[in-house]
Amino acid sequence: MSITRTYNQIAGQKVSRLEAISDGVFAIALTLLVLDIKIPSREGIKKEGELLSSLLHLMPRFLSYFLSFMTLGIFWTGHTTQFNYI
Q: What's 6's DSSP letter?
């Protein structure tokens, strides 16, 4: 009986470590999303219109990044809320 009680006391005290490692996984995933966005090359842009045109070509990537960021944020918020009850 004392082994079970000791294990339960130790296991119940380390929930914050599990939450911290899962927060780290979410942070890495969000960082990898940002690394996928490539800026336009400087040599190909001579005027402001060309800059706007090149940024418009990146809009699908920005939209994809924004939606992925929001989805991961929703999952992270739900995960954190669940850990408040553990």
A: H
Go through 21-59 and write b for each residue having 16 or more CB atoms within 10 A of its CB, e for each that does not.
eeeeeeeeeeeeeeeeeeeeeeeeeeeeeeeeeeeeeee
DSSP secondary structure letters along 16-77: HHHHHHHHHHHHHHHHHHHHT--PPPSTT--SHHHHHHHHHHTHHHHHHHHHHHHHHHHHHH
Q: What is the pLDDT of residues 8-52, one digit of tens each?
A: 566 656 677 777 888 888 888 888 877 777 776 667 677 777 778
Structural domain boundaries in the chain: 2-85
